[in-house]
Every structure is written in structure tokens, then in C-alpha cells.
């Protein structure tokens, strides 16, 4: 959480600390895209322009990046069984 807030603060200082909100929310709350509560917990390393507004901001980290990270952690931990993000989800819900 602290890392996400630090990234957001740096982005705000650069004038780009915004996320993409659904169209109805963006219209109803025009400045909500810069509020910390709306920021992604796992922000993307890259910024991009919102195709609707042209504003620059961050999207969430891609699923593929998370998938690769989990696979790497599994290998480094020496776990032979297959483990995926979905496996972690079920483990959390079960235990």
C-alpha cells in the first residue's frame, strides 16, 4: 500500500497521478481519478493516456506480470507442485 501511495504522490507531483474510471463515475466525480482511494494497489510501471479524456495516468499491473512473478517465486521457493494466482486465491479462501 505504501509503495502504491508513493507512486501516486510522485505522479501527482508530475501532474499525472490519475487512474481510469468508468465513464459514469468520471462524469459524476470529475476529480475522483486523482484521489488515493481510487488508485490501484498494484499500479502499472508505465503510464498511458486515457483514450477518452487524453489525461495521463496509470492502469493496474497486467495479469501476465503477476503470473510471471508467482511462477518465479514458486521456482525460487523450490515448490515442485504447480502453483498459480488462482491456487493462491483458493488457498486463501480455504485456510
TrEMBL record:
Kindly state which keywords UniProt assigns to this record, in alphabetical order.
Answer: DNA recombination
Q: Name one GO molecular function term.
A: DNA binding
Recorded hits in PROSITE patterns, A to Z, give: TYR_RECOMBINASE (PS51898)
Note the InterPro entries from the entry.
DNA_brk_join_enz, Integrase-like_cat_sf, Integrase_catalytic
Gene Ontology BP annotations: DNA integration; DNA recombination
Q: Does the keyword Transport apply?
A: no
The keyword Methyltransferase appears for this protein: no
Q: Where is the signal peptide?
A: none
Residue ranges constituting the Tyr recombinase domain according to the UniProt record: 1-95
Which protein are we looking at? Site-specific recombinase IntIB
Lineage of source species: Bacteria, Pseudomonadati, Pseudomonadota, Gammaproteobacteria, Lysobacterales
Q: Which gene encodes it?
A: intIB
